[in-house]
Amino acid sequence: MVKGTRDKGVAVELLEDDNTRHWAEPGVYAVAPGVYRIPLPLPHDALRAVNVYAITDGSELALIDSGWALDEARELLSLGLKAIGADLADIGQFLVTHVHRDHYTQAVALRREFGSKVALGEHEEPSLALAADPEVFGMNGQIELLRLHDAQPVIEELGRFFGDAKRTDLDLWEYPDEWLAPGRRSVLPGRELDVIHTPGHTAGHVVFDDGAAGLLFTGDHVLPHITPSIGFQPEPTALPLRDYIGSLKVVRALPDRRMLPAHGAVSPSVHARADALLEHHRDRLEKMGGKILAGASTAYEVALSLGWTRHERKLGDMDAFNQMLAVLETAAHLDLLAADGRLRSSDVDGVRHYSA
After folding, report:
1. Residue ranges of the Metallo-beta-lactamase domain (predicted)?
2. Axis crossing angle, helix 240-253 with helix 320-339, rounded to the nearest 10
3. Tell me: the pLDDT tens digits for 34-67?
4. Is 133 left (phi over 0), alpha (psi -120 to 50) or beta?
């Protein structure tokens, strides 16, 4: 331990990021000179935390991602910054990898309080506009896709899962101060990052390449232990898996970097994990196509017949939200196979069917 802070009985220590602790354990972890990883809590068990990265030269401070706008996350971020000699008011800018709430919403909340600037990928604008619309249920696009893929039981499960829950975060979907376009961008005096558009997880996802330090801030595009969901966003895209595989190849073509992901531990090689993810999707394409050849007709039927997560869980054994992600991910694979001419697809009475 170098130093630490304590407030309201919570201690935050400044430690070397050497993987001796679980990645989600609270603390401030020194990743590289002037770069610190601060895991912040999430309100569910599937993903325990999100990594926020502080970049500082001792006088100026920028953050990659911001965390979910939760009281506990705000407190731990404040304590973490104090451990490196800074405070929330010192944050000059947030560079946000994508529009999901665990990356974006705390940036908006802190901007109101302290005037920090917020930057987000330019292709997130359609989804952000829908997220801020009080007349739109946040998952309308996903419900329509589930209906297209004959997954009515999942729609009913979602209804039971969310019940009459009201949206309470409409005010946290304000527009950023800056729409990020691909290219080099100054972050601190003497420190630049390359903004790289990596669609797939969302349409406007970006990663940040610190070539001088050999670091790649990968957001949710490349994760060390899980396969990122494909295309979960208010405004769905036509072929999100094609986008995602293309983005993996873009990252794979860069010089190899240390991987600084949004969920999971810092890892030594982006290339190694990108290769594993590419192989995973090659395997899923073969398996899902094989299910159609064996007689399945819809994405829902295929999803029911597959194992999910590394534990090979059945679709019905998962909660409604993850059932939805599984069916839509299946559809993304089947749609790509159809677009590539390996399957046929046809919409009959509002349901999409696939065949050899």
Report:
1. 49-263
2. 80
3. 999 999 999 976 789 999 999 999 999 999 999 9
4. beta
* Lowest mean pLDDT across 228-237, 260-269, 343-352: 228-237
DSSP per residue over 285-327, as a string? HHHHHHHHHTT--SHHHHHHHS-BTTTTB-GGGS-HHHHHHHH
- The SS3 of residue 336 is helix
Question: Tokens for 321?
Answer: 């939200």
Q: Is 190 helix (H, G, I), strand (E, B) or coil?
A: coil
Report the run of H or E that residue 160 belongs to, with start and end: helix 152-162
CA distances to 131, 165, 213 from 235, in Å: 9, 21, 35
Q: Which CATH class is domain 4-163+177-355?
A: alpha beta
Do the Cβ atoms of 46 and 322 come closer than 8 Å?
yes
What is the rounded CA–CA span in Å between residue 55 and residue 62? 5
* pLDDT for the residue 135: 80
Residue 7: its pLDDT value, please?
54
Q: Report the percent of the chain where pLDDT is more than 70.
A: 95
Q: Provide the pairing of β-strand 178-180 with 49-56.
A: unpaired
Q: d(Cα 124, Cα 98) in Å, to the nearest integer?
A: 7
pTM of the model: 0.94
Residue 230 CB coordination number (10 Å): 24
Question: Pairing relation of β-strands 191-197 and 183-188?
Answer: antiparallel
Residues 89, 52, 180, CA angle at the centre, nearest 5°?
Answer: 85
